Amino acid sequence: MNVVRRRLLIPAAATAVAALSLTTLSACSTDSAAAGNTDKFDVVASFYPMAFLAEQIGGKYVNVTNLTEPGQEPHDLEISARQTAQLQESDAVLYLKGLQPAVDDAVDQSEIRTKIDAASLTSLEEHGNEVGGHAAEHDDHEHEELSGKDPHVWLDPVKYAEIAKGVGAAFEKADPDHASTYKTNTEAVVEKLGALNDQYANGLKNTKTKVFITTHAAFGYLAERYGLVEEAISGLDPESEPSGARVRALEKMAKADGVTTVFYETLVSDKTAKTIAADAGLRTDVLDPIEGITEKSRGKDYFSVQEANLKALQTALGAT
């Protein structure tokens, strides 16, 4: 699998963040229990979408620790020695290979009994700047941005449901004493994701345009699922800078395709998105890749943020 390498945190900053992360659970938790050695099934999750699934499926029998601090861009995560030790003490780790290289390395080197790679529970595709089959006539240069296996599968409710089923099965196998609860909880999550899929399919069926612009190519799976076209400013890497040619191509495409909105996200700078929008006479709005829940998030969990994303897309695309 191709891995998009991001800027690494300065070591001192990484150590500080890691120290904070040791007692940080996902946004759904209120406990600050240690990652391992509790009287529950201890699961270390790499970032919010994994932690959310673990908690939804595990319920009261699982203690979930999120390695990524709320508000931290997950691609930047570095693992401290203490976090690595905690990983060893836990019963399972749930991560998405290809998203966080430091986590991938730590999991590969650990002897933890149950390693659950969400990327292996569904199919991954290659995405870059353009996603969804958009004609290339608006862009008269070759895309210089990185492309590869796109890890943002959780934004597609159907693929996220596939991952949920795999996680549930892994929990049942690793902790058979509570298998029936895990099975029931998994079925409930999958049912809710099915309902969310229906909301998106119906809500985006009739729109004036199918094209939307985002900060980086996080919404490729969602675009393909619902017949939309994502045009990303910075490809798969949220921190790369677009070329002048790319910016001009986006402005030309926006005018040709009736694009009204440039979307930015909560965990990375909105400067480039707002500059492009201002130059092209477009408005801006938030489309959240749900890589972490913060006070800026339009919702308190995965489902509420996805519903807010749907409303934002309906407005931008002119849903009828």
Major pleated sheet: 4 strands, parallel
Rounded radius of gyration (Å): 20 Å
Quaternary structure of the protein: single chain
| Arrangement of strands in the largest sheet | 2-1-3-4
How many strand elements?
11
Strand content: 5-15%
Quick structural summary:
With 320 residues, the protein is an alpha/beta fold.
Give a quick set of tags describing it:
10 helices; disordered N terminus; 40% helix; 4-stranded parallel β-sheet; 3-stranded mixed β-sheet; alpha/beta; 320 residues
Characterise the protein shown here.
Mean pLDDT is 82; it is low at 1-34 and 131-147. Helix content is 40%, strand content 12%. Helix 5 packs antiparallel against helix 6, helix 6 (179-203) runs parallel beside helix 10 (302-317) and helix 8 crosses helix 9. The longest helix has 25 residues, at 179-203. By secondary structure, it is of the alpha/beta class. The chain has a four-stranded parallel β-sheet, sandwiched between helices. A three-stranded mixed β-sheet has the order 6-9-8. The chain starts with 10 loop residues before the first helix and ends with a helix. It has ten helices and eleven strands.
